[in-house]
Design a protein that fits this description.
heterodimer; A: 115 residues; 6-stranded mixed sheet; 0% helix; B: 111 residues; mainly beta; 58% strand; globular
Amino acid sequence: GAGVSQSPSNKVTEKGKDVELRCDPISGHTALYWYRQSLGQGLEFLIYFQGNSAPDKSGLPSDRFSAERTGGSVSTLTIQRTQQEDSAVYLCASSLDGRAGNEQFFGPGTRLTVL
Amino acid sequence: KQEVTQIPAALSVPEGENLVLNCSFTDSAIYNLQWFRQDPGKGLTSLLLIQSSQREQTSGRLNASLDKSSGRSTLYIAASQPGDSATYLCGKGGGSEKLVFGKGTKLTVNP
């Protein structure tokens, strides 16, 4: 079956602009995660959605970052007023039901470059 | 704060060699340990998942072990091939749903 998909694969934007990144999880997976991978920082957790529960936003670096998940499936990560330090690869993952111990499957990522 | 460390940061070996990649963690609370490979410009591919109740998992030439008492996991790659060249990442599940990652080991297998 299809894996996790993300779009766009690459995004170049100017400082101060807003961007939206999209993630489509594996069909039937109720848990969805966003991570960020930047040089020198490794992979960092951003936000987690599980079904209809309130999302875990504990990893979001600032209030410029937000995410939503519509209909329990597709998720959009929005970065407002982008800064150069937001440049990174944004990775989305999904798992069957989000229980601790479930295998996470990752998408190909969106490479964001803020000029 | 949970920390996950991977040593070495980079490793270069000749084809055919057996090798071990290391992952250590400071917080003993662990639900699972997941090993991934990442090719340049790509996402993460899941290789092996070890639950906290398990000691090891095997898939083909790969074997991953988990020692909770010492806070370590190892990924053993047998008879390495040039196609194994990639960055290997370990992610620790510590009870919350997120994974905490090490910074990876970049492996180069020379033909």
